[in-house]
Amino acid sequence: SATLCAMESFDRSLKHLLALAPDEVLGFGLGQQVQVIRAVSPTLPGRGREVDGCYLIESGGQALVIHVEFHRRHQAQEALAIDVAEAQLRLYRRESVPVVSLVWDLYGRADEPVTSEREVVIGPSGPRLRCHFRRVNLRGMTWRELLSGAPPSLWSLVALTRDGQNQDALRDTYDAIARRSLPDSAKADHLAVLWFVAEAEQVPIQWLLALLSREKLMQSTLYQQIFSEGEARGEARGEVRGRLKHEADAIQRVLAARLGFVDLDVRQRVRAETDELCLSEWYQEALLCTDSESAKRLADKIRRAPVSVTPTAE
What we know:
- By secondary structure, the chain is an alpha/beta fold.
- The protein has helices spanning 2-20, 22-30, 77-95, 143-149, 167-179, 184-200, 205-211, 214-217, 221-259, 264-272, 276-287, 292-304; strands at residues 35-39, 53-59, 62-71, 99-105, 115-122, 129-136.
- It is elongated and about 85 Å long.
């Protein structure tokens, strides 16, 4: 669905932004300058789950692993804490250095602080686990505060601030990014993040089109990747739709040839079927219909079949 694609682009944008400037993104969250030594594999050992980001840094002469989670879902605090605690343990076992977790809460509230230390107790009673992490909440600041006080690499997240979903915020952010002394491709990457994050925040598309042309965005590696993948998905969906239509038409033609007619109920039921396996099964049976009796059995089967329900992405 369009909503799902927008959220996938949003997710990719956040990770891309982190990869573009990990020192600035991590430094803002931690409230101090950091020296990034290298990226660390985001795949948790023995688990297969990937965290959103993982970096080895040096702070005060000590090596630390910074584990980043973008908290997109309205997930209960205990469930989030379990995920964070699991990542901390698995990363510590693999890297053998202390692990600090940085949770970017994308559904924070305007009346909560921008950064805070959080400790969540896991378990209802008795001996319990405690999970500690640092939380970042961009909803706690205005868009003007973001542009004046946050590192430039975070400006493209303006739509995640308390009041950053308006035309003035988008225009001033665009101008600020355009003035940066960066290569055109790097500027385009930040503008692509601005576009995808604002789109996920349901900013009217006409506001974005008034600022950003496709020609500018196509200079962005991020935009090219997401655009190409979207085209590929669209082509794949088009191929499936074409095949389903071909099979539905063939079923009706075979029934008409063997029976002399196809009643309206059967025609509508065939056209309404969205399950690929079901339609393919009817198609194969239609190809084996050699007389009116076999065609009648297939028509009765189609008429009695319950309508398939296509699951929707949440």
